[in-house]
Amino acid sequence: MLSDEHTIIQADFYQRSEVLQISRELLGKYLITEIDGEVAGGMIVETEAYSHINDRACHSHLSRRTNRTEIMFHAGGVAYVYKVYGFHFLFNIITNVADKADAVLIRAIEPVINPEIMQQRRNLAGLTYRLTAGPGMLTQALGIGKQHYGIPVTTGEHIWIEDRGVKIAPEEIVASPRVGVDYAGEDALLPWRFRLRENKWTSRAK
Q1: Of the candidates 44, 33, 24, 49, the residue with the CA atom closest to the CA atom of residue 144
Q2: I want to staple 149 with a disulfide (CB 3.0 to 4.6 A). Which of 54, 81, 99, 137 is the partner?
Q3: Could you give the count of Cα atoms lying within 13 Å of 80 in the half-sphere of its Cβ?
């Protein structure tokens, strides 16, 4: 559970309308899980923003409501977890108010809290960038799976985000196109992937 000196980010942070701002402000925050009694986590160093308006890369584009995307239409502050390539789970946080289905994908963290637990889950012997430098890698390292679809990230149970007072200057953030969304046409070129400059734990995708 959360220690006294750290603050869990509450729903009003996520329920703002500017998903790009939220995506940038999540850099430097700490993503933490407590799975089967084991706590692990690290500092968020890379995110991607997805908007329900004018963004063909967003799963909720044109208000598509399916069994998978339904949680996107809830008020911000809940987890959107889905599978890609048949075996990788990706962890997103829903933002904005109900029925305005925006999301932030957490792409990479710097492993800080109990990295040995993450190494065991990833079957890696050392602290290499492959531990958590990618959205599928970090979910495996943190124990995040389909069972966490729709849970709140504001309670300090299972999955939560902490503010530990890390300040990120604007010049420390690199903005570039998102990864793996070529199907979105011109929207694939939007510079909505944000990462910390020269941080070795960001993903290697160009």
Answers
A1: 33
A2: 81
A3: 27
Q: How many residues does the chain have?
A: 206
Determine whether domain 7-196 maps to CATH 3.10.310.30: no
| Cα separation, 117 vs 41, whole angstroms | 10
Q: Do residues 128 and 135 touch, judged by C-beta distance below 8 A? A: no
Which residues, including other chains, have CB under 8 Å from residue 155's CB and lie 6 or more apart? 8
Q: Is 47 exposed, middle or buried (0-12, 13-18, 19+ CB in 10 A)?
A: buried
- Beta strands 30-35 and 38-50 are antiparallel
pLDDT (tens digit, 9 = 90+) per residue, 137-176? Answer: 999 999 999 999 999 999 999 999 999 999 999 999 999 9
For the chain, helix (H) and strand (E) counts, in that order, are: 4, 9
Q: What is the pTM of this model?
A: 0.94
Chain centroid to Cα 4, Å, comes to 24
